[in-house]
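Morning. Coffee machine broken again, so started the prediction first thing and wrote up yesterday's gels while waiting. Chain of 169 residues, entered below exactly as on the submission form.
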Amino acid sequence: MTKPLRFPLIAATLAATALLAACGGGDDDPSVEGDSSGDVVAKYIGTWESDCYADSGASAKVRADFTKTSATSFSGNVVAYGYIGSSCSGPSVKDEKVLTNLSMNHAGTKAISGVTADKFNGAADQGNGKLVMYTDGSTLQLGDVDASKDAEGYPNSFYESRYTLKRRN
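Came back before lunch.
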């Protein structure tokens, strides 16, 4: 049995975990360049980042770096950064690798919430799963892996807006 792919593992436990160790780290690494080709995955290539969110006096944000590996697939990593205080300011005190060695393969499209989302089969060091994604070019919505699923196992809804990522580059 495979574990479900938990792409935006942004939860209260993540913020708490992020503050457990003060090991430094930085979310100021160079951004991944976007892709202007007409390939189906091109719109997802680049660096994406969540807004800062607060939890119990701490704060965190998530960064995703996606690099195209073919016209229908991409790879990358998703890292959560934890901060002391509630504004994601100053150096991060912890970086938590949420998904490492991520590999996503396009598997078609489906309608969700009035938009046509892309379906992906994904694998990472943390597990395998099915995910839907949609971008308007500046924001990235992710399918809620805990929501109801269609007959093929893809989520039927997106995460709430708190988990929407924004293009960084």
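Helices lie at 12-18. Going to sketch it on the whiteboard this afternoon.
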